[in-house]
Amino acid sequence: MSNPGRPSAYTQELADEVCERMAGGESLNAICKDAHMPHERTVRRWMLDNVEGFSPKYTRARELQAEFWADDILRLSDESRIGEKVKTGPNGEEVTTGDMVERTRLQVESRKWLLSKLFPKKYGDKIEVEQKGEVTVKHRWGQ
């Protein structure tokens, strides 16, 4: 099911845009939702088939995307984001204003999980096995 007018042929301009936007933190899914971009499956096929040397460029863009996400964890953790919570209770709606800690925690944990799965050597848990046969798991994120 392709959308009419969506490009499927590889062009250097499209490939460069995909890689630049991924390196800037955008997901491939989000990039490929733009009407002028190819479908996500098409870009993955370019990468798998290494069309015109696209595979190493895509891989490098993914690595830079991971660095962006890791930096984003710091930004999210360091900034304060004030928002409103609305609760409906017996007395009607109660609105409270404060730091959106739960939302920020979800964003940080989502990025940490994604990084640990996509780049386990760098961001995953380190497993050490001692000669005694005991297994020790050391979390890279300090938990």
Explain what this protein looks like in three dimensions.
The chain has helices spanning 12-23, 28-32, 40-49, 54-78, 101-118, 120-123; strands at 82-89, 92-99, 126-129, 135-138. The protein is flat. Helices cover 52% and strands 17% of the residues.
Structural class: alpha+beta
Characterize the largest beta sheet: strand count, sense, and whether it forms a barrel: 2 strands, antiparallel
- Strands of the widest sheet, in order across it, are 1-2
What is the number of helical segments per DSSP (H or I, 4+ residues)?
Answer: 6
Alpha carbon gyration radius? 21 Å
Query: How many strands in all?
Result: 4
Binned, the helix content reads 40-55%
Would you list the SSEs in sequence order as H and E? HHHHEEHHEE
Distance between the termini: 44 Å
Anisotropy-based shape: flat
Subunit organisation of the chains = single chain
Please state the average pLDDT score.
89
